[in-house]
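Work Package 4 report. The design task specified in the project plan requires that, given a folded chain encoded as structure tokens, an amino acid be chosen for each position. We show below one input record used in the internal validation round.
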């Protein structure tokens, strides 16, 4: 492994330890999982993906801020959520092959840890227990967001 990849891998391992999503992962599990992630930088005012795109990855915000936006029938955009460091975004793309349901926009320079569906499937093949643990985390995230959405609808009613 060359020096640049080794430094990046070490940095990714350290970053995982700072994300609440991975708090139940052992050091060995985080070491194994970090090998499947890539680190990407996005400048401010960049769309990471747009509604309707076919998605095949999710990401964790390590630095910066992203907004989830939807467009109404009158073409007006609404910010439905904002996420900062430690947040996971794009989970549905790991679960299904449907188009993205919203646009995610970087509002300030941001650093993201990303995992593709293909790499997730490789984890499941190579480390089934680790894949299941990650999948449970994704399900927990989706469940919490659904509960929050239900609470918003209850407030409206």
């Amino acid at each position: 492994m060359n020096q640049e990849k080794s430094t990046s891998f070490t940095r990714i391992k350290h970053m995982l330890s700072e994300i609440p999503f991975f708090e139940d992962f052992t050091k060995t599990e985080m070491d194994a999982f970090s090998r499947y992630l890539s680190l990407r930088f996005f400048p401010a005012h960049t769309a990471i993906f747009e509604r309707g795109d076919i998605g095949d990855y999710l990401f964790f915000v390590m630095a910066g801020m992203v907004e989830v936006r939807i467009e109404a029938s009158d073409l007006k955009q609404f910010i439905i959520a904002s996420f900062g460091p430690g947040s996971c975004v794009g989970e549905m793309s790991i679960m299904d092959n449907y188009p993205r349901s919203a646009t995610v926009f970087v509002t300030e320079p941001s650093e993201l840890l990303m995992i593709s569906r293909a790499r997730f499937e490789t984890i499941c093949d190579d480390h089934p227990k680790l894949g299941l643990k990650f999948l449970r985390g994704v399900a927990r995230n989706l469940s919490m967001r659904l509960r929050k959405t239900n609470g918003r609808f209850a407030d409206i009613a």
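The first helix runs from residue 3 to 16. Validation will be extended to a larger panel in the next phase.
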